[in-house]
Amino acid sequence: MSPGIILGILLTAMSMAPAARAQQDDATAPGAAPATEAGTAEGDGVPAAGEPAAAGEGQSLPPISAAETLLWLGDQLKGVARPATLKYEFRKAGSLEEGFTDRVHLHVTELLPEGMKKATVDFFTGQRHLSIPPYEAINGNVLLAIFLQGDILEMKRLTEGGTRYFQQRIKFALATKATIADTEIEFEGRKLPAKQVTITPYVDDPKAEINEKFRRLKDKAYTFTVSEQIPGYLYEIHTLVPAPADSAPGSVPVLEEYLRLTSVGPLELTSAATR
Question: Is the pLDDT of residue 164 over 50?
Answer without folding.
Answer: yes
